[in-house]
From TrEMBL:
Residues 1-46 are annotated as: Disordered. It is found in: Nucleus. Residues 23-76 form the BZIP domain. The keyword Secreted does not apply. Residues 1-14 have a biased composition (Low complexity). PANTHER family: BASIC LEUCINE ZIPPER 1, BZIP TRANSCRIPTION FACTOR 44. One of its GO terms (molecular function) is protein heterodimerization activity. This is Bzip transcription factor 53. Keywords: DNA-binding, Nucleus, Transcription, Transcription regulation. One of its GO terms (cellular component) is nucleus. GO terms for biological process: positive regulation of DNA-templated transcription. The gene is BZIP53_1. Residues 15-25 have a biased composition (Basic and acidic residues).
Length: 142
């Protein structure tokens, strides 16, 4: 019986060693898993921080672009208003010039009115000659 006990005790000690070995593997695996999870959390945290920084940079860039768009829109509105004023002035001055040309044509004082009219309609062209237009006091009676 003692041989059986010895063989039984030897098998029990082999089982303990096997369990001890399995427990050691399980413990090492658990430590490895914990370390891997910690690295994964650190990596995820680093990624979140980088993305947060990128979001901040993009928000600043977006605010800059929005400010430029608003400034450009204001400039456009101002230029459009100025352009409308200048167009209205052009129409008014063109009408006045036509009225004056009609008055001159009916008075018979100047024979070459087209040269004067072209020169006045296109003042940036200096090629036309300037002519004096004489007016009598009786011409502008209403």
């Amino acid at each position: 019986m003692s041989a059986l006990r010895q063989s039984g005790s030897s098998s029990a000690s082999e089982g303990d060693q096997r369990y001890a070995c399995m427990d050691e593997k399980k413990r090492k695996r658990m430590i490895s898993n914990r370390e891997s999870a910690r690295r994964s959390r650190m990596k995820k945290q680093k990624l979140v921080q980088e993305l947060t920084k990128e979001v901040s940079k993009l928000q600043v860039a977006n605010r800059t672009i929005v400010a430029k768009i608003e400034e450009t829109t204001e400039r456009l509105t101002y230029c459009t208003a100025q352009n409308n004023v200048l167009r209205a002035q052009e129409i008014e001055l063109t009408d006045r010039l036509k009225s004056l040309n009609d008055l001159i044509n009916h008075s018979g004082l100047v024979t070459d009115v087209t040269n004067v009219a072209d020169c006045l309609l296109k003042p940036w062209q200096i090629t036309c000659s300037m002519q004096q237009i004489s007016a009598s006091s009786g011409l502008f009676q209403y």
